[in-house]
What we know:
Blueprint: E1 2-6, E2 10-14, H1 24-31, H2 37-45, E3 49-51, E4 54-55, E5 67-71, E6 89-92, E7 96-101, H3 118-126, E8 150-156, H4 159-170, E9 175-183, E10 190-194, E11 197-199, E12 207-209, E13 218-226, E14 230-237, H5 244-251, E15 276-284, E16 291-295, H6 300-309
Amino acid sequence: MRVSMSEGRQLEIIVEENETGLRLDAYLAGKIPDLSRSYIQRLINDNLVLVNGESTKGKIKTSTGMKIVVNVPEPEPLSLDPENIPLDIVYEDSDILVINKPRDMVVHPAPGNRDNTLVNALLYHCRDSLSNINGVIRPGIVHRIDKDTTGLIAVAKNNNAHQSLAMQLKDHSMERIYDAIVEGIIHEDRGTIDAPIGRHPVDRKKMAVTPGKGKNAVTHFEVLERLKGATYVRLRLKTGRTHQIRVHMSYIRHPVYGDPVYGGSSRNKTTGGQMLHARYLRLKHPSTGEFMEFEAKLPEDFIQLLNSLRV
């Protein structure tokens, strides 16, 4: 691969013989490590990536001699407001933060949720010390958990840390374990749900198991306790698709208790949302290479519901 840069804003790449047959977005993500694949996809959609002089789509395949020009715009001025929102910081150093996120906190701004997000709080706490790989709306954010899900989330304070954590997510070396209360009694002591996940064919705001179309998704579960009409389970993610646990548990007819989107009869039986908690996180420190483990205790409303459902 030959790469030339002009003022840090334009990259020219010539595909070599041993680099053929790869999806364009995936190829570029591998060749430009300081840009995430999702950001590259946005550049492609905005016609900022040219192949042999023409705009294109991310699904095309590379071929020998293909000339790719990537135009990276100047960073947008950050217009989000830092907010002095208390954070439950489990760990912090110059590279990473590990936060125990409360229920009802959105991770990053989106339509209808511009303020009071984790990002607003991070901007106040970290000032300029956050990675910018994921753009101005998601500084420092490597992975997400849902608004109504509680528990651990890792934040990158610089781009090197971001790239390291992102790679650990990609190769599944970052271990993430969740606790959940789900509807119904699971009779197996443990099991694996291996079912691809993609956009719901009708409701585009939802995800669904989509055989033959979705992305590979694997969730391992273990029964911790059988309750009154419910089961307390521990879940290990092998992959990290959007709403993966919630979709998978609903797919096997044991939706997360209180889930307002994928839930069953329990969706209106909790005051705080779904009973899903990111309890455990194991990662390799981006600078030292040391493996680190973090654990967040169950939130009070989870414990209260658990006790009320005990037979």
